[in-house]
Amino acid sequence: MPAFYLTLIAVLLAGFGARDQVTIAGLGQRQGQRPAVLVTAILGALLTASLAAYAAHFMLEQLPPPARTIFAAIALGLAGLESMILAPRRDPREPTNSLGALGIVLVAQQVTDAARFVIFGMAVGYAAPWHAGAAGMMGGVILVTFAWVRPDLLGTPPARWTRRVVGGLLVLAASTMFLSEFGIL
Hints:
Elements: H1 2-15, H2 19-31, H3 35-62, H4 65-85, H5 99-111, H6 114-126, H7 129-149, H8 157-181
Helix pairs in contact: 1-6, 1-7, 2-7, 3-5, 3-6, 3-7, 4-6, 4-8, 6-7
């Protein structure tokens, strides 16, 4: 069960202020809180967390146990770098108001975001892809629902700094895992 709880906490921290949240918040501020946008976002979060868990399941079959920790550290490091470096656009443009287009954009953003890297890394590191995937699904649903309910909070400077600080913590955790596996720490 530690894989579930730790992944849930890590996904909530890593996903705060991510590109998908900013997209949902921007649409909510411009178009109002359309329930169809929330449903589309939830479906995208469920799909991408499932893909991350499946990819972790596949990798677990390929990697010996010592390599799993190193691989998990690399995934967490990538999540941290993504959080620190890639800043989401503050005002996403949606000219069509199409839910299909929104779904494609959200899935494309979520597949490569820090939260999915965290799901993948924690699933490989704990050798529990389905527990980590379930936690990632729950965390993703909480994050997109928060963005839909409170779109005004994500555009603030503290939200952007929180994202960068969490990214730095993820890079630090990844470095510690990596160095510990080689006996340096």
